[in-house]
Amino acid sequence: MQQQPLGIVAGSGMMPVEIIKHCNKHHIPVFVVGLESFATAEQLSEAPHTFAKIGEAGKILKAFKENNVRDIVLAGGIKRPSFKELIPDWEGMKIMAKLAMKKMSDDNLFRVVIDEVENRGFKIVGIEEVVPEMLFQEGIYGKAKPDKDDMNDIERGWTVAKAIGAVDVGQAVVVQEGLVLAMEAIEGTDQMLARAASLRKEGKKPIMVKVLKPGQDMRVDLPAIGLQTIDLFIKHGIGGIAVEAGGILLIEKDAVIKKADENGIFIIGLKK
Fold it and tell me: Domains in the chain and their CATH numbers?
């Protein structure tokens, strides 16, 4: 019996590309819907695909149904659009009406969208179910290792990151010698690192800690580390990163480790 294609809703970045590569390598059929303004034709060139606007829920679900998709994975970056930027179709309007009745946190937004999609006969699956090797494992990646002072900063950062995650604010912090320089909020990791760089003092380089939110839904919005992260570390003088093993994604693993090694940046996966 022929395997049903895996549906991929593709945003920006390399995550959809890595999933497509994995599926092609393991002969898993896929069908991709790229979100306009986020995904590009070049990203999706190795898989059958179409494009839709982020508000066109009806068009997206119709495309998956016509291509015999049941399981769907959400992959890649998506900046939350303003209502002015959204041009929803009828299905999109129905979902937005339900969102309007809830507080618009990321958790509420994703939960409503998942419920609405699954109520229409689809199943949202986590990336770790499709490409488990993309998840960080415990241990050190590469040659650089955190020292005792780094581990103290990691401990401090872990506590703070879990606290802000519990109230759905962010999932990452930057710490230098016990001082929290910046916490991730709605502006995202890139701007957090820039803010931390403007506040850092001379001496030991700051480190970043990135964790899962308590009770995080593993099907959506998993934090990810990739080449862009290492480039930002180099730019802003970040000495290393600790991530929660089993919950953070590592994209382009070999290239990330190589670049980190070249710049003396440590990468460590931890479980607490």
Answer: 6-130 (3.40.50.20), 135-270 (3.40.140.80)
